[in-house]
Amino acid sequence: MAPIATSVHRTGLLVVQPLKKRQCAACRTGPLTLLVLEEGAPWCLDCADLGHLVFLPRGDTALTRRSREGSALSAVVVRFNRRRSRYERQGVLVEEAALVRAEERCLADAEARRRRRARDTRRREAEDLRFTEAFAREILRMFPGCPGDRARDIAAHASVRGSGRVGRSAAGRALSEGAVVSAVGAAVRHVDTGYDQLLMSGVGRFEARRRVSGVVEGVLRGWRAGEVSS
Into how many domains does the chain fold? Predict the structure, then answer.
């Protein structure tokens, strides 16, 4: 085992996970899974008056902090890393009652976070629904000939949260005319023309758009004029 200066670490008492088999210098118990070094000699936890503590592995910062705050006695557990030539923290020893209380507090916090996430989800869903309805109304205002179900489908597709589509752009959120026209035009291009088939056959995007542009413009003109397509 590499030398370690003292059994008291800057963060409190220090306990070691030995790499080699060691016996307690006092009671000769061994091999020890955890030990305290006193004047260079290994002591088991019972002989070091730490046997009543329980081990909490590292990983949960909040649980560790709360457990140590609530424990009258605690210790940091370390193990020597040969490759890095240093001792590394493995967890802490704390009083069991303190650990139980800390777990209860963390569970309460987790439940509070779950409820908050649920509220946030409901709020976002309501906001998304209102925005989609507003987008659909703007489509119908600009294109009175657009069937209502088409307008709602276009709005729902364009305004999916996190999609990066036009409805989620700054212009889309402002319900600008350009954003609405862009969303409607894209829907017509994909649904009412052979644009997708052209792309699948190897035609470039710009050429495919050029080939179907007449059909798209025709549908948009008719919808603007109030002509309901089938």
Answer: 2
**pLDDT per position as a tens digit, 165-198:** 555 566 556 678 888 898 999 999 999 999 999 9
What's the pTM? Answer: 0.51
Cα separations in angstroms, 37 against 1, 28, 78, 183: 11, 14, 12, 71
Write out residues in the chain with pLDDT < 70, as ranges. Answer: 1-12, 162-174, 227-230
d(CA 125, CA 13) in angstroms, rounded, equals 51
DSSP label of 22? -
Give dist(CA 157, CA 135) in Å, integer: 11
Q: Tokens standing for 112?
A: 């509070």
Which residues span the domain enclosing 16?
Answer: 8-105
One domain for residues 163 and 216: yes
15 contacts 77 by C-beta, under 8 angstroms: yes
